[in-house]
Amino acid sequence: MSIQRKKRFIAGAKCPKCGEQDTLKLYKENDVEKIECVDCGHKQSQVDDKVAKAAVQPTEVIGVFKP
Fold it and tell me: In terms of C-beta density within 10 A (0-12 exposed, 13-18 middle, 19 or more buried), how is residue 5 classed?
């Protein structure tokens, strides 16, 4: 069984690769926003802010080794 994803076109947006206007569609896949150009096939992903922040935060330091 395949799940249909709701895709919307972004009015006035230009593709960052080919520069064509009104060719980008926006959709969500596994809670990740994605855009795709219907003209050249270029794709980009945008992760949720919470996920992005968690990925760049340093982990807790347990101890520091000093030789």
Answer: exposed
State which amino acid sits at residue 21: Q
Q: Which residues contact 6 (CB under 8 A, 6 or more apart)?
A: 27, 28
pTM above 0.70, yes or no: no
Q: Residues 55, 57, 60, CA angle at the centre, nearest 5°?
A: 120
* All domains in the chain, ordered by first residue: 8-51 (2.20.25.190)
How does residue 66 score in pLDDT terms, banded at 50, 70 and 90? low
